[in-house]
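R.M. (postdoc): so does anyone remember the format we settled on? I'll just put the structure tokens first.
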């Protein structure tokens, strides 16, 4: 087995993965019953990710962990 044949097989696998991904995307975007929940899930994940980043930066006011104000 030569390196060129390995690259050819990797190309075939890559094209197969892309075709499956594009098929999945067209199925989701073509059906509103699937599109809306997927869109909400992506937006919710984005919001939760941004809250996590804000917490890691140490900005107070988001879940202050029970500290009392003086």
């Amino acid at each position: 087995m030569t390196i060129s044949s390995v690259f050819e097989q990797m190309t075939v696998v890559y094209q197969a993965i892309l075709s499956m991904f594009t098929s999945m995307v067209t199925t989701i975007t073509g059906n509103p019953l699937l599109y809306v929940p997927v869109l909400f899930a992506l937006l919710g994940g984005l919001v939760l990710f941004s809250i996590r980043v804000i917490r890691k930066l140490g900005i107070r006011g988001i879940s202050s962990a029970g500290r009392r104000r003086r």
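R.M.: ...and that's the designed sequence above, right after the tokens. Also worth knowing: DSSP finds two helices and no strands in the chain. The CA atoms of residues 34 and 69 lie 45 Å apart.
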